[in-house]
Protein 1
Amino acid sequence: MDLSVQQGLPFGQNCDVLVLPITKGAKFRKWLDPKIATQIEADGFEGNLGEWLCLPSYGLMKAKKVALLGVGERSALTNDILRRAGGLLSKRTREAKAKTVATSLLGVTFGELPLREGVEAFTEGVLLAAYGFHPYHKKQAEKHAKSSLKSLTVFEERKALLATYERAFYEAAVLSEATCLSRDLVNTPSQDMYPLRMADIAKEIADGSKQISLKILDRDRMERLKMDAALAVARGSTHEPVGVHLVYKPKGKAKKRIAIVGKAVTFDSGGLSIKPADGMMSMKIDMAGAASVLGVFKALQSITPDVEVHGIFLAVENMPSGHAYRPGDVVRAMNGTTIEVLNTDAEGRVTLADALSYAATFEPDAVIDLATLTGACVVALGEEIAGAMGNDRRLLDRVRLASEEAGEAIWELPMPPSYEDHVKSKIADVKNIGAKGQAGAISAALFLKHFVPAGLPWVHLDIAGPAYTEREARPDMPVGGTGFGVRALVRYLQGL
Ligand code: BES
Ligand code: ZN
Ligand code: ZN
């Protein structure tokens, strides 16, 4: 899609649809041909959030159609509402089979919102809603390609602001592309998105940037590093496990060193503690944490913050077989901590035990992990909100701020010391399940805490809910993988 800004007003623009986002009660009559304005009033357009009214212009304007897009009360306007509005513009103009669209934000008063962020959110919405995943569906792929928008021209009267628009477009394009990469990886069936394939994607990213290097940990190397926990999970599968360690280094001096770690279970059958059929259907998404780590690195190619970033994941497939690890087995993680495996379906934390231990050896200033870790977190917070837990107030606050800016909701859950015995084992240092039917997301985090050295600031994001969506709750988030976490983490890294 060709995205551009032009100085002036959009009303004389030759295009398929002219879209005007409008706050509630804004006076649009002054901009439009009186006949069209009268028709819009007669149709009862109010400007409520999500309202869309599209009319033919009957040759009264150069645009073939004019559409009004409601964004709700002016006082309630946020960047996230603008993101939704951008998404709606994308979706509705696609439905209207438009190829060329002109728009302007003049009907949206920015109030307290900084312009750059508002434009960026709006554009992100447009681009994220244009996403489709159809490599396995020829007809859909053709339909999608045919209906996609060719150009979006945004009009702005104030010349001094044009550069701000350009900057916002650039960031929105980078972040959307990175988010959509993460979505693609999550949406790809496990038969094609197996551990070594994830390492290939990492290689493609590292090859695309002089500032990104890649270390691959093959099985031998994982054995030498004593990653026996992750290796135990991988044993049931015919797919080779592989560790990925990406490093981004800024050109100048790095202000900080940050490690981001992702859960990378390319398929989670549950292993010998096998999942019921219904619970297994979506488990190709169990590498979404790592997919978002890859998305972040994709963005780092273009948005080059002054921090050193380590992206780490241990990719495995969790399958039952004669070689599979068993309930009752005790495995030793890289940091020496022993784990009693009581449920092979609580495999994510077992792989993260090694990934976090490995990350800590590089002595980062902070570690953030993303993992589709527990069904309990979905029960607690639903599909739209990730659970956040950690050991450092400042880091938790920073991550929350970044997630707010990105429009990716997180909510903090406590890690009470009194729950630590939920993961105590009689025969090993820890066990991989908590108390039955209680605080499942928290006990998973308390388990992970055993693999983060004391004093290392750490945040764990349980993204089991928002990593993918089965219904389109908002137009910028089509069904399937969402790419959750990419934008929040990039924002966090930018803000350091
Ligand atoms: N990958 C699942 C968690 C999950 C569930 C992600 C639903 C996305 C949607 C994880 O490996 C798992 O199976 N967790 C178990 C842990 C339990 C056995 C302690 C769970 O949540 O039931
Ligand atoms: Zn599992
Ligand atoms: Zn899992």
Protein 2
Amino acid sequence: MKKFPKDFVWGGATSSYQIEGAWNEDGKGPSIWDVFCMIPGKVANGDTGNIACDHYHRLEEDVALMKKLGLKAYRFSISWPRIIPAGRGKVNDKGLAFYSKLIDLLLENDIEPWVTLYHWDLPAALEFEMDGWLGEEISDAFAKYADVCFEAFGDRVKNWITINEAWVVAILGYGHGVFAPGKKSNDLPYLAGHNLLKAHGKAVDIYRKKYQKSQKGRIGITNNCDWREPLTNSQADKEAAERALEFFIAWFADPIYKGDYPESMKSRLGKRLPSFTNEEIALIKDSSDFFGLNHYTTMYAADSTGKIEEGSVYGNGGLSEDQDVNLSVDPNWKLTDMQWAIVPWGCQKLLEWLAARYDNPEIYITENGCAFDDILKDGKVEDADRIAFFEGYLTAVHAAIQNGVNMGGYFIWSLMDNFEWASGYDKKFGITYIEKETLNRIPKDSALWYAEVIRKGGFESKM
Ligand code: GBH
């Protein structure tokens, strides 16, 4: 039996744009994802989040589902343009009322709310007015929005996450341009990343100064990282893997835990990487009460100095030419429907790498999961492959705990099938199946399995 610590937080996660729908109801302003979805060719099948899982109108049902599964915690995000429709200024009471009701329902059912303030649905107004995350004023706008949320919900919300996956926002939104706002550039990701860190730092500062004492909650950031394994034993490949991890997660975690960007980034990027003022770093250093981590997959890393391979740029954990890293996967690794490799030992190695680099912080896996082409048959979804995935990754988490990693909890991605960004509804990450026409919720076998894991605080492992 793989037993987990008694107070281990077992949760499920979603995000606002991916599940809520009601994109223009009750005073909500448009987000950059509302707009991005309208541009032909950006999202598979022309899918949009207009209706999504219609969670906005199905709160009671969805919380009842969580209760049935026995979730201890539910991680969701707040839509900034639902709270402040134009990004700055007037607050929308109906938006506040929606999240207030959700939070109350969760607490009535003994489910701890974990609230992300930014999961990519930036108010479109701020894209027009200040060039989104490139703008000098964006971090203040974010901090003001965060302040509104702390004040409205902080009496009941004790776990705050400022920003979800700054890497994705910067690289996919401003580098590869496959996510909103769709900019393609080699330089802009570093500016966007810088402003994301400043936004996080300013929001945390407000929380700590105005609210933390009385509200007694904690606040942190969630970053994402895939593991990078050296392709060979050569020194060059070992250094390449280390460099790739630094360009991926140390980009955002080093400023928070060490007070500056990693040396490898500073020396390779020169002036293309903004530098922090003393004032900024004072806000950013030690600004996370826990280490939020989203983890999905693993790749081999090889040194590519002077020989970048065609096609290796996308998905290279950043911009290849800046890192001199080529990535690859082992042809024997099983893939999910996203074509991401299933490599549980990579998760264990990553957790141990983070523990060593950042002095054993309390780590929460705030997302881990997989897409498979699930089929509904006779009212059931037999997703044995997803159960095997979770067993593998939870076994890795368990092993990391045995080795001294300070793990606080684990949230599966996702509670339900939802709008998978540029992949639309084709890619299903849920432990709950959403029937296309009716939007009925049908717990998959993995949901029933997860409910048992939570109930027992662990699972019988075949590994
Ligand atoms: C998360 O991002 C998001 O937070 C969530 O909203 C989303 O639904 C979920 O994951 C599933 O996608 O790009 O081929 O190089 C995931 C971040 C970054 C994980 C890139 C996989 C490598 C594969 N991803 N990564 S590739």
